[in-house]
Amino acid sequence: MNAKELQDKTPDELKDQLATLKKEAFNLRFQQATSQLENTARMRNVRRDVARVKTVLNQKAAAAATEQGA
Question: Which NCBIfam families is this protein grouped with (predicted)?
Fold first, then answer.
């Protein structure tokens, strides 16, 4: 997933994506705690994807705020 793909999505789609990623991060943490996690790099990727989604959401919110203010 890259930022370009995320910018094409609506805020509602981004919020759904964020919820899915957070659930996945929770499951990965749980697997790590029980020593069942095989791909430890996936945790890093999920964390970064969450950050990307949040960044794009904040950019869209800021753009909407400046449009209303103008």
Answer: L29 (TIGR00012)
Residues in CB range of 33: below 8 A, 6 or more apart: none
pTM for the full predicted model: 0.90
Separation between Cα atoms, residue 59 and residue 7, nearest integer Å: 9
Quote the crossing angle between the two packed helices 11-33 and 41-69, to the nearest 10°.
160
Per-residue pLDDT tens digits for 30-62: 999 999 999 999 999 999 999 999 999 999 999
R_g of the chain computed on alpha carbons: 15
Name the H helices within the chain.
3-7, 11-33, 41-69
The number of residues in the chain equals 70
What is the rounded CA–CA span in Å between residue 35 and residue 13? 33
